[in-house]
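Quick question, first post here. What does this chain look like in 3D?
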Amino acid sequence: MNTFSCDTTLEARKPSILLVDDSADSLRLLQITLKLKGYNVTVAESGAEALMQITKSPPDLVILDVLMPDMDGYEVTQEIKRNSNIPFIPILLVTGSEKSNVVKGLDAGADEFIRKPVGKDELLARVRALLRLKHSMDEQLLLCQRREDFVTHLTHDLRTPLIAADQCLNLLQRGVFGDTLSAMKESLEHMAQSNQTLLSMVDTLLEVYQYEAGCKTLDFFVVDLWELCQQVVQELMTLAEIKQLTLQAVLAEGIETSAVRIRGDRLELRRLLTNLIGNAIRFTDTGSVKIRLNSTCKGVTIEVEDTGIGMNHAEQLHLFERFRQGKHQRRGNGLGLYLSRQIITAHQGIILVSSITGQGSIFTVYLPGQTACC
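> Answer (accepted):
Ran it through. Tokens below.
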């Protein structure tokens, strides 16, 4: 993610424009026209020189001739757009040839296209439009940076007192400060559970934001999904036993454990399984929750099936949206399934749901990757 500062906006200073053309006469004419309007103008006589200047000091706008020796305007445009270290710069391609391909230029990443001879009024109008685009993009980046700082600091500031409260409640429950009255034990337990819920919500909020901001880093290694699934099931078994539910993970018939190994981020896949299985337990009062793992030459399939309350078609349509909760009265923050889909998308997979009200649900996750069956 680019992290260029946008504190100095285009409206507060003279915009800078880089002219790139191998024709000295064309450069001189454009330079005079733009300087008379108060723009800061620099020039480059080749694509290579332009790229060096842009890397060193990115301008607010590049006006680029298409037909140049060694590196044409299309190639320069592609190089600019390909370099993630360069901030957003609008590009205006200029050509004197009828054979120049507008579609090719736009596909390369150019934002506008203009033909020679360039009319003064048309040129200035396009420059103004592209600089407005630049200003808008810079403002959006600045807002994203501020939002990222806000969310990061907010979650940190929230977690600190919640962790302290959690530790204090734990000490009280253990009687470190003296015997706890029987009448207080149930209240302390509810307080501890509520505090854990808040901590989980804060952590989930931060994870969701990192995905949305594009700053989430995943570490891909070979992950044994069968082993991981067994671990998650063991961790959640107590919750299922409290509700007298059957909780089990099974492999599809004829599938070996080696066939459900894929490349992925183990921590995120663990979070995914915990979300899906935990949800199934939460929304199931009687019956069972079953996790089935299968393998094909295209990847691995994970099915989480429950005999819970289910949901209607309208609820299913919006199930994976952020802060979307069903019409049930069960505890949840509306972020778990949204985050799950973010994790699956980051692994190039998909998630589907099939459900009938009162009969349960099946969440099916497809994760691509070469498996043993191939």
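The first helix runs from residue 24 to 36.
The chain has ten helices and twelve strands.
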